[in-house]
Amino acid sequence: MDKTEYERIAEKYLDMVYKIALSHTGKDTDAEDVAQQTFYRLLAKKGGFSDEEHIKRWLIRVCINECNSLFSGFWRRNVRFFSAGSDQPAEPEDSGSDGDEDPVFAAQENKALYETVQKLPPKCRIVIYLFYYEGYKTQEIAQILKMREPTVRTRLVRGRKLLKEELKEAWDYE
């Protein structure tokens, strides 16, 4: 792959890969690492692609694999962080984000929806993202994620149900 082709692909799909990674990991720094690894794998790829859809699907699959690798690594499984003066494990703070505004969903009206989607289980989150944001059909999502189509539909139904419950409570509260 030549430099101009790589730059074209990176410019076109970087935002998509970052959003998928952010949706899967929940943290800016982890999403940046996953996106960087995904495009590194693109750069190292030997074979070519048949068309634009093949490139997009390949990037999505690699991004999801990188997210899974991130969470299955030795460091994530075995290292626990502790707060000062506490014996209870705590999550490390994300120093890469100011917490006030998310770069992907910066509009205020989308903030509640984004936060609710982030609360979904990762299995539902990725299916919801691919279906609603990327416009894939359930059959295509099943091919990308290498699972059966009924599983994709079940995760969509569960995700929608969870979103409806959470957003209804927030909506009724206001």
Could you list some keywords that capture this structure?
Rna Polymerase Sigma Factor, Chain: A; mainly alpha; single chain; 2 strands; 174 residues; Arc Repressor Mutant, subunit A; two-stranded antiparallel sheet; 2 domains
Description:
- By secondary structure, this protein is an all-alpha fold.
- The chain folds into two domains: 1-96, Orthogonal Bundle (Rna Polymerase Sigma Factor, Chain: A), CATH 1.10.1740; 105-174, Winged helix-like DNA-binding domain superfamily/Winged helix DNA-binding domain (Arc Repressor Mutant, subunit A), CATH 1.10.10.
- It is built from eight helices and two strands.
- It has helices at residues 3-25, 28-44, 52-72, 74-78, 108-119, 122-133, 138-145, 149-173, and strands at 81-82, 89-90.
- The chain has a two-stranded antiparallel ribbon.
- Helix 1 (3-25) packs across helix 3, helix 5 (108-119) packs across helix 8 (149-173) and helix 7 crosses helix 8.
- The longest helix is centred in the last third of the chain and has 25 residues, at 149-173.
- The protein is globular, with a radius of gyration of 18 Å.
- The chain starts with a helix and ends with a helix.
CATH topology of the largest domain: Rna Polymerase Sigma Factor, Chain: A
Q: In terms of per-residue confidence, which ranges show pLDDT below 50 for 5 or more consecutive residues?
A: 92-103
Q: Give the N-terminus to C-terminus distance in angstroms.
A: 53 Å
Strand order of the largest sheet: 1-2
Percent strand equals: under 5%
Shape: globular
Mean pLDDT: 79
Total count of helical runs of at least 4 residues: 8
Our count of domains comes out at 2
Radius of gyration: 18 Å
Helix fraction, binned, reads over 70%
Class based on secondary structure composition and strand pairing: mainly alpha
**Biggest sheet statistics:** 2 strands, antiparallel
The count of β-strands is 2
Instruction: Give the H and E element order.
Output: HHHHEEHHHH
CATH class division of the largest domain = Mainly Alpha
CATH architecture of the largest domain: Orthogonal Bundle
